Amino acid sequence: MLFNSPVFVVAFLPLCLGLFALAGWRFGPRAALVVLLAASLVFYGWWKPVFLPLLAGSIVGNYVWVRVMRRAMRRKPLLVAGLAANLGLLGWFKYAGLFAATGASLFGARAPDLGIVLPLGISFFTFQQIMYLVDSYRDETPECGFVDYACFVGFFAHLLAGPIVRPREIVPQFVRHDGRVRSGDLVAGIEMFLLGLAKKLVLADSLARFADPGFRAAAAGHPLSLVEAWVALLAYGAQIYFDFSGYSDMAIGLARMIGIRFPLNFRSPYQARDISDFWRRWNITLSGFLRDYLYIPLGGNRHGEARRNANLMITMLLGGFWHGAAWSFLAWGGLHGIYLIVHQQWRRFGGQMGARLAQGITLLAVLVAWVPFRAESLRASWIMLRGLCGAGGLLLPDLIVKAVPALRLVATPVAVLPYLGAARTMSVVQGVALVGLAWGIILLAPDVHSLRVRGRNAALIAGFAFSVQALFFAPFARPFIYFQF
Fold it and tell me: Based on the domain organization, do 171 and 244 belong to the same domain?
């Protein structure tokens, strides 16, 4: 079930909120949380009920294991065993197929079909439980009942794609919850949900119509011209931001509806002044997880320059690989590792540059790194990168060449970029205008989290978002980019 699907918006969500409030009013806060947990299990099992035992077993197993670990004389072996079990489960479902295929290709054999289907949200609920294990080992998380813990892990608002919430921030909120739905929280949550929905439906899904064809062409081995490659990349860079930040807005809004405060996950990341600043603004909860549960335990910057650089690279490589079972994700993480190391060395030797130039270089580096993240293979990444450098030539829409005739000396005019196909209803000029509008919003406007929407603005936003719903609902809801990570 998707947040942007009709069944969720008009059926599941109102029913869940109504039953939650009714249970809290009639039977008390524990009953309300039981309703929330049951609704979350229905939400998770909507796609494939067969994976419900996996989620339930993971939650029960980790809760019992933590209780045993808290009372043990020697905790560390139990911590290691718990981490190994969680990572082993994630590794089997997410990476066994990749390693089997890679090993088979090295020996010239046919890749075996392991028949593994990746369960939804396994990357996210695994990280949630790893945090709880580690924080319990450190005595940084208060003990709680099973229902509180199960809601912390399985709450449908963040179960599939985050944000990754800290146990010490969220578990106490469930423990203290009084089972009531307050009007102020409900209104604030609806506002945030609708803003995220508008991001997804108006911008992300429209931008995908210009990003997808270019990357599909590269995956098929077709060379791309300079304009084609840059239109596709700029469209994707804006798409992934509006798609994922829109999802995060909706998740934060859904939690707020019942009085749970999730942390911010985006803060105008493309306005970052350097690559370190980018990672303090992009997917903030994942960045914090990688820093506190991987980079710092590896040694952080406590053991000299060489060790710090190695720790940065390991952290980013593993962070990239966590995103998906493909070597291109490892390349994306490696690129960001290189960026961070270069930035650290620049700062170490006192390098300086103007703020606008630094922001431009950072944005360019981030966009280039999106190529392997989005491309279907390393070969497709190479084709796209060649196109970005102009190795595939320069093609411009006919309207632009007519407006500036001198461009005929360097460019071949085309009515529609070749990879888009003649059946497309939008012209390239319209696509460029849409991409330009999206980037104008990204670079000039504050992130939605910075907006404090109240009073009459709420009605305007609600009317706008519901109009968008009516106009843009296709026969099927387009999945979020992070839907099955």
Answer: no
Which among 181, 198, 218 is the end of a domain? 181
> Rounded to whole angstroms, how far apart are CA atoms 406 and 408?
5
Burial (CB count within 10 angstroms: exposed 0-12, middle 13-18, buried 19+), residue 403: exposed
Using one digit for the tens of pLDDT, what is the confidence trace for 211-255?
888 898 889 888 888 888 898 899 999 999 999 999 999 999 999
Cα distance between residue 315 and residue 313, in whole Å: 5
Please check the confidence at residue 372 and state whether its pLDDT lies above 70: yes
199: helix, coil or strand?
helix
Residues with a catalytic annotation lie at 323
In a domain, 1, yes or no: no
In angstroms, the CA 429 to CA 398 distance is: 9
Domain final position from 145, 160, 181? 181
Measuring CA to CA, how many Å separate 434 from each of 201, 254, 430, 441? 14, 29, 6, 11
By C-alpha distance, which of 329, 410, 322 is closest to 369? Answer: 329
Does 283 share its domain with 173?
Answer: no
> Which tokens in the block code for residue 204?
């992300």
Number of H helices, E strands in the chain: 21, 2
Q: What is the mean pLDDT of the chain?
A: 85
78-120: pLDDT as tens digits = 999 999 999 999 999 998 888 888 888 887 788 777 778 888 8
**Containing domain of residue 374, as a range?**
187-472
Backbone angles phi, psi at 414, to 5 degrees: -135, 145
Distance separating alpha carbons of residues 258 and 180, to the nearest angstrom? 7
For helices 52-71 and 146-154, the axis angle rounded to 10 degrees is: 130
Please report whether residue 485 resides in a domain. Answer: no
